[in-house]
Amino acid sequence: MSQPNTSPATRKRRKWPKWLIWTGWAVLGLLGTGVILGLVILIFGSVWGVELNPHTLARRSYFFYEIPLVHWQVRGIKREEVGSVAVDFLEREKYVAAAKGAPDVWHVVTGYRGMRQVKLGDADILVRYLEAEDSDDYHLWVKWSEQNPNLAKVFWPAVSRLAQEEEYVHIPELFDLTVGATDPVALQTSLNQKVGERLFELGRQLQQAQEHAEAKKYLDEASQLDPGNPLIKRAAEKSAAAAAK
Prior knowledge:
Elements: H1 18-44, E1 46-52, E2 59-67, E3 72-73, E4 78-82, H2 85-92, E5 107-113, E6 116-120, H3 123-130, H4 140-147, H5 149-164, H6 171-177, H7 184-208, H8 212-225, H9 230-244
Antiparallel strand pairs: 1-2, 1-5, 2-3, 2-4, 5-6
Helix pairs in contact: 4-5, 5-7, 7-8, 7-9, 8-9
């Protein structure tokens, strides 16, 4: 029996359909693009940092990935509590606590994209005080609070109140008031005046923006903290009258 002719000269080469070839190249291109994009996201797309709760002074870290430049988030945010000796102490002694119904607000302490710091929030000012240590590696403000519990009871709520309004740049003024303080009543008065002063300024800004209903809230609180201040009283009366119209 004769064998079929399979020599190279007579053998026909099988051709792949063009659509299949183009599909293959497209798939390879997409895979290559996906790999490159994945590497870019891993290297440059990490977003992370630390934020602070102004009501409790607790901190937590956050982390997620995004597509660089367009800032499209591609992974859910992962958050973890940041341990702090000072905050644990304040919580344990009930010097600070979130009031019932308080909003779940967090202020940025530090923020990074990749290895580049993109934000240093004002909340970092307070964190530096909370984490300050003496030569024996003992937290300074934990030690002060342990030695002055009656002063601490009036001091830390005032710190938290300014933090809630993101008035971190003025918080050092409150810490300065503790120097030489021995009488909790006198310290409370001084703290009230300082906090009232900041709330008064916030209220006046809202007044100038003609947002009298919101301004009245700040000015009324400022009046309660510093009832002897005639400027606060007049401003509160002005916004009360405007809000009533």
